[in-house]
Amino acid sequence: MVAVLDTAVHFRDMLLADIDDVMAAEVSNYDFPWSKQIFLDCIKVGYLCRVMENAQGEFIAYAIMTAAAEESHILNISIAPAFQGRGYGRDFMHFLLDEAERHGSKDIILEVRPSNEIALKLYYSLGFMQIGLRQNYYQSYDGREDAIVMLLKLQA
Ligand SMILES: CC(C)(COP(=O)(O)OP(=O)(O)OC[C@H]1O[C@@H](n2cnc3c(N)ncnc32)[C@H](O)[C@@H]1OP(=O)(O)O)[C@@H](O)C(=O)NCCC(=O)NCCS
């Protein structure tokens, strides 16, 4: 897959110095955010932890993915609220799909809440298909919420 990316943004490794920006976006975007320690652990164990910033060096977004030959798994993708709805989520997904292909992945999977209509629209538009449902996977205010498991085949 050849990504058509906004050339005004670039991607780089997530650094410890990014954690405050990451946590600010995480807490704004999710009712049940990851802790700072989870991000530190993801960096430590060598998951693909990337940040998107613009030409002015402003922090726009971050994503975490495990990348492996059989399968890559997007664990988190999050655009800072001020930058949502401007195409950056799509750009970041293309970047992740390219990274997964570069690692030789045959498939890329992710989980998403059924209530997350914007994310679902984005993933379906990229060709992801629902392959399963993990029951009671997520915390929610009224009990638990299922996770839709989605997969995109990267190689024939
Ligand atoms: C979900 C998320 C990653 C999408 O990124 P984004 O930069 O906001 O989205 P984009 O501008 O790239 O738009 C991508 C697609 O999402 C959908 N979309 C975006 N904003 C939308 C809105 N306000 N209403 C409906 N659909 C919307 C559209 O299908 C859009 O494609 P199109 O513009 O070609 O129609 C981002 O909103 C986000 O970080 N949300 C909070 C965290 C989150 O939910 N992460 C995903 C967890 S699974």
Strand content: 35-45%
* CATH fold description of the domain at 9-111: Aminopeptidase
CATH superfamily of the domain at 9-111: Gcn5-related N-acetyltransferase (GNAT)
Percent helix among the residues? 25-40%
Topology:
Layout: E1 9-13, H1 19-29, H2 36-44, E2 48-54, E3 59-66, E4 71-79, H3 88-102, E5 107-112, H4 117-125, E6 129-140, E7 143-153
Bound molecules: coenzyme A (COA).
Coenzyme A is lined by residues 29, 77-79, 84-90, 112, 116, 118-119, 121-122, 125.
Polypeptide structure, described:
The protein has 156 residues and is of the alpha+beta class. It has a domain at 9-111: Gcn5-related N-acetyltransferase (GNAT) (Aminopeptidase, 3-Layer(aba) Sandwich), CATH 3.40.630.30. Helix content is 28%, strand content 37%. The chain has 4 helices and 7 strands. The chain has helices spanning 19-29, 36-44, 88-102, 117-125; strands spanning 9-13, 48-54, 59-66, 71-79, 107-112, 129-140, 143-153. A 7-stranded mixed beta sheet has the order 1-2-3-4-5-7-6. Strand 6 (129-140) and strand 7 form a beta hairpin. It is globular, with a radius of gyration of 15 Å. The model has no long low-confidence stretch (mean pLDDT 95). The site of coenzyme A has 18 residues, from strand 4, helix 3 and helix 4.
Features:
4 helices; Aminopeptidase; binds coenzyme A; 7 strands; 7-stranded mixed β-sheet; 37% strand; alpha+beta
Quick overview of this protein structure:
The chain has helices at residues 19-29, 36-44, 88-102, 117-125, and strands at residues 9-13, 48-54, 59-66, 71-79, 107-112, 129-140, 143-153. It is an alpha+beta fold and 156 residues long. The chain has a seven-stranded mixed β-sheet.
